[in-house]
C-alpha cells in the first residue's frame, strides 16, 4: 500500500468538500426578487419590528374604481340608504347637537371645514343603530377623516338611531387645508361600503321632505344663509337675506328647534305640502311654554329649476317684518330762509299750532338713487338704511350687506 501523509489526507478532503458545495449551488433554483412597488408597499404596511398590517378598509374602498351614486342620489349601504344632500365649506362651524346639550363653535385648524349634509333612511321593519364610517378623497389623492369633535344632531358619538322607516338628517365635517377640492366620499355602514361622486350633482332626485329635514338641521348649525337660500325667491317678497339674518342671528344660543314629524299632505310634480310638527326648547333643554310657537305649521313647497324650494308663508313674513327695525333714510339738512319778524311773530293770544311730522313711511318711499354709498362713512352706518326692496340700491348683489366696499 502506498504511503499517504496526513497533509495529503487533509488536501483530499478539502477538494472533495469543494466539489460537493459547488454541485449543490448549481442544482439550487434561482431566486426571484419582488417588484419594487410591491416591496415598497410591504414596507409601508409593516410596523417597525412586526408583521405586515392590513390595509385600512376605508382607504381600500376609496382606491376602488367607480362610484355608487352622486350628490342627490340614493345610495344603499348596510341596513340603510344614504343621500348626500349638499357639500359646503365653512371657516368656523357652530353646532347645537340637541336640546340641553349646549351650543359650541370650532375654528378650523387646517384651513376650512368641508361639510357634507346627508339624509339617512331605515328601509327595514325594525329599529337600527348605525355607526357610519367615512373618508373623503380630494383631487390630489389625499384623504381626510371626519372631525369627531364637532357634535351634530342625530349623530351622537358617531351613532345614529333610526326607527323603522324613519329618516334623519345630519352632517359630516372634514377639517381640510384651504383650497381642497373634494372628489369622492367613501362610506362603510355595517360592513358594507359605498362611494359617492362629489363632482356630480343630481339634486333633482332629492325628494321634497329631505329638503325640510336639512332646512331644520341648518338651524342647529347657525347656517342661516343656507336656510334662507332654500326659499323660492318669488315668495320672499320684501324679506331680504339681511332681514333674515337680523331676525335669526340674535336667536342663536337661546333656543333649539327639534323636528318631531313630517306628515305629507300632498306631493305633485311641481308642488308639495307638509304638516310640520316641531318643538322649541330653551337653552337648558326644556320645551318652551308657547303653544303658538310649538303649534304644527303647514309648509308649502314648489319645484323650480329642477330643485324643490320652500314657500315663505305670510305668518313668517309678518314676524320678521315686525321684529326687523325699519330706518328712515338720512335726511338732508334743512335750510330755512330768514324770517321777517314783523310777519312771522305770532300774536300774543294766538293759539299754538303743530305741523304734522314726516313719517318714516313717507321718507322711505323716495325714489331710488336719492342716496348712495358715498353718503356714508362706514358699512355699518349704510347697513342701517338697507330697507326691504333696497330702494336706494345700497345692496346691488342682493346678499343683504349694504355698501360692502366701505370700511
How is this structure best described in words?
The chain has 407 residues and is an alpha+beta fold. Among the domains are: 55-202, Immunoglobulin-like (Sandwich), CATH 2.60.40; 207-324, NTF2-like, domain 1 (Nuclear Transport Factor 2, Chain: A), CATH 3.10.450.100. The protein contains ten helices and 17 strands. The strands form five sheets. A five-stranded mixed β-sheet has the order 1-13-12-8-9, covered by helices on one side. It has a four-stranded antiparallel β-sheet with strand order 2-3-6-11. A four-stranded antiparallel β-sheet has the order 14-15-16-17, with helices on one face. Strand 8 and strand 9 form a beta hairpin. The protein starts with 5 loop residues before the first helix and ends in a 24-residue tail after the last helix. Residues 1-21, 23-47 and 331-369 have low confidence and may be disordered.
Mind sketching the topology for me?
Elements (H helix, E strand, L loop, with lengths): L5 H22 L8 H9 L12 H7 L5 E3 L2 E4 L2 E11 L1 E4 L8 E4 L3 E12 L5 E3 L2 E6 L4 E2 L15 E3 L4 E11 L4 E8 L2 E10 L6 H12 L4 H5 L12 H8 L6 E13 L3 E12 L14 E8 L2 E4 L3 H10 L17 H4 L15 H5 L14 H5 L24
Parallel strand pairs: 1-13
Antiparallel strand pairs: 2-3, 3-6, 4-5, 6-11, 7-10, 8-9, 8-12, 12-13, 14-15, 15-16, 16-17
